[in-house]
Design a protein that fits this description.
The structure is a homodimer of 486-residue chains. The first copy, chain A, folds into three domains: 73 residues, Winged helix-like DNA-binding domain superfamily/Winged helix DNA-binding domain (Arc Repressor Mutant, subunit A), CATH 1.10.10.10; 226 residues, Type I PLP-dependent aspartate aminotransferase-like (Major domain) (Aspartate Aminotransferase, domain 2, 3-Layer(aba) Sandwich); 103 residues, Aspartate Aminotransferase, domain 1. Chain A has 486 residues and is α/β, with parallel strands linked by helices. In chain A, helix 12 links the parallel strand 8 and strand 9. In chain A, strands 4-11-10-9-8-5-6-7 form an eight-stranded mixed β-sheet, sandwiched between helices. In chain A, strands 12-13-16-15 form a four-stranded antiparallel β-sheet, with helices on one face. In chain A, strands 1-2 form a two-stranded antiparallel sheet. The first copy, chain A, is globular, with a radius of gyration of 25 Å. The first copy, chain A, contains 18 helices and 16 strands. About 2% of the residues of chain A have low confidence. At the A-B interface, helix 6, helix 7, helix 9, helix 10 and helix 14 of A face helix 6, helix 7, helix 9, helix 10 and helix 14 of B.
Amino acid sequence: MDLPIVLNPQSTLPLHHQVYDALRCAILSGRLLPRQRLPSTRSLANSLNISRTTVTQSYDRLLSEGYLETIVGSGTYVCAQIPDDLLHAPALESPAASSPTPIQLSQYGQRLSQTPFALQAEPKAPISFRYGRPALQHFPMQVWRRLLARHCEHTADWLDYAIDFQGYLPLRQAIAHYLGRARAVQCHPDQIILTNGTQQALDLIVRLLMAPGMELALEDPGYLSARRIFLSHGVNLFPIPVDMSGLMVEKLVHHFAQIRLVYVTPSHQFPTGATLSLPRRLELLAWAQQTGALILEDDYDSEYRYGDRPMPALQGLDSHQSVIYIGTFSKVLFPALRIGYLVLPKPLVALFAQAKWLSDRQLPSLEQRVLTDFITTGHLESHIRKMRSHYDRLRQALVHCLKQQFGDRMTLFGEKAGLHLMVKLHTSLSDAEIVERAASAGVGLMPAHPQYLTPGDRGEFIFGYAELSAEQIQIGIDRLAKSLSI
Amino acid sequence: MDLPIVLNPQSTLPLHHQVYDALRCAILSGRLLPRQRLPSTRSLANSLNISRTTVTQSYDRLLSEGYLETIVGSGTYVCAQIPDDLLHAPALESPAASSPTPIQLSQYGQRLSQTPFALQAEPKAPISFRYGRPALQHFPMQVWRRLLARHCEHTADWLDYAIDFQGYLPLRQAIAHYLGRARAVQCHPDQIILTNGTQQALDLIVRLLMAPGMELALEDPGYLSARRIFLSHGVNLFPIPVDMSGLMVEKLVHHFAQIRLVYVTPSHQFPTGATLSLPRRLELLAWAQQTGALILEDDYDSEYRYGDRPMPALQGLDSHQSVIYIGTFSKVLFPALRIGYLVLPKPLVALFAQAKWLSDRQLPSLEQRVLTDFITTGHLESHIRKMRSHYDRLRQALVHCLKQQFGDRMTLFGEKAGLHLMVKLHTSLSDAEIVERAASAGVGLMPAHPQYLTPGDRGEFIFGYAELSAEQIQIGIDRLAKSLSI
């Protein structure tokens, strides 16, 4: 076992503390995995050339803090369940401390090393209501394969660097047409910059527009992955509460004057599923125009709306270049494609194009061409239509089962759109107890509380349904109800 | 015509200056293209709702500065040839000035908007000695296509998000084996982070390790695209001269104590082609160990070495975790693949993995799988072998033709490796005259001077040969010699 521990004899930290730090860091960063066995104190002491007492001291502290557990007669292991809080709160050991030559970090590097995060632990249960994935088994792989092959028939010019800072022009044209039709977004292909998904879009925005200490408003609860980017840049976050009509814009209007950016998910607020009402949309746009703030419209899941007509995008209602629109193909096609896009106010286009080029030049060319074909030959919209009715059936099944099993002992949120809904269970059980009982019944459940800026149990759970079948949904909810008996 | 001009009545800049700025910015950033026609002064004045005199004043200034030209009886056009200097020097109009709501930028954003760059103008000549591209027509497309198809036979798990922060593990394993064998790099797959090419690798390094005002040493002349990243982060650059044995390490040792990073291309210095000698490698490593500086080893073109044995990578000689090794598949396979990698000192791995995940999560999964197959089934190394002898033949043809035509009126640099060589022509002609004469003879030529930190003619030219045939090389050099008659 190759434990990445490097001791620094010049450090003022005692050795047992350095060993403790290195192991804790390895656990928190996922280099040591839950249930992984650690070397014996004797063998680690030998390999580090330090006393066994020193290693024992470090192990004892990690055991007492719940990072490690001993199994009698077998050895010391990384704890199977590292509490969620630990994965967020504590500082990573700085690379400076463990390196033979001390490595200094930028402020960005320091912030990342002080607030590390683990890949979000997802329930690995026979029936998991995890969210964030489409029904990948319905992806039209044969079509995709055919389009891929078509571009690989001969030696092709797409092997070379792209000549376009903003991404493949025919793809930007196809996206502009699609967004105009489907989302009432007003844009010219010249306003589009292709990105490696929403994540890079957000990262570019914050890099270019926000300095540490500047103020950014965001929905609370809101999308955790976006919040991590904002925090990594040292931005001050202003949480704005959310109700059944989405972001409570009046809180924004009355309280804060210095806000530079507002991050919103108007089509399907994450995780509550609320749709931002039209009056609030207009109020938000007016506020942005007045204050000079920019609105980041993350239009995820806008394709999936059941029953009523989709609300046009904020971007299309804006007449003052106050909106940056963010879209992705991760949910309508597949996440590993890594193609998303920004629709920018015109004055920002040249700047973002340069930043994208400096960051990583361009997206892979083959995917851009295949996706262009997929859109222009009508496959995208027909796939979305097909999936919309598929998801609608699943959603109805889930709502039906939940009502049947929990009746008025729960409240449903955001069931009119998207690929998940949120449920508040009226119970005295803690979130952890609920997750645990569900898990022991073979049901994976994700609490909503990590999406809130302030921690604490809320009895709220996100039910993703896109990956399941109607039968699995029924079995899952039945089992859940039995295990909770509320 | 949709000219992106927005005037700001609150600005202290007079209107004609604002119009001038907006047009100049549009030209420099490529939104207005050479030979593109501008609207008449009357129609622009109407559409902006300002006086025609104001527009005329702006046009006159742009005409006098060589941005515009008039064609009698036809109108006003963007000049066909914008001098190269202009594309580098002047500040972009800040988005703040042209937006209805003034947009503030981060420091990074400000630096980018103050030092914009254009996509490097490449000679579009019948025979172009441009550099930076492999012989794409020899890429084994049929193999690639077969591997792509294999992964698209059924619905596949690679459609989903990757579960690995650092990139697809089997690919990292394949790269680690390859680097160990071919480059004597000492690394475990856990030290590798996959990136979207060298560009993203450099960007992540500077983001995490350098703050504005910190000091970075680099080769002069050196790789322009790397320099642009360093400058965008506000880093202070310390140019270190280069001779026939590469970076003159003694200059580094004697003069600077505060340097945090040194960026080097030891296998094939860009653009001179020098190989960093073994004594200098050892001196550089000792210096880094002493000062705590990190070495960025950009090992581009290391695969192509003709005649003598390749020098092992700096990284493999290092025993103090002082080297970050950067590699890419852009030159051995194709640029639009966008797969490169970092080999990191262990204490930095967790931090870089988090930064990569925050920046854009992961690389597209299909490419990672196809590339893994391509390496593990031996195609990569057989392709490199085949291309090495192909490029060797081209290189010999080029050297032969140059010697025949120019004899001792030129000096050759770096012809033992890589996909280009550098030629210093002993002539009183300016670089621009040489480029122009070559172009009029149908030969595209790229001067080396943009790779230097200080501008000025040097009579040095970079001759890329990978994309040409031996016949084209001979015709090209013949024509060049005739057109120059030196």
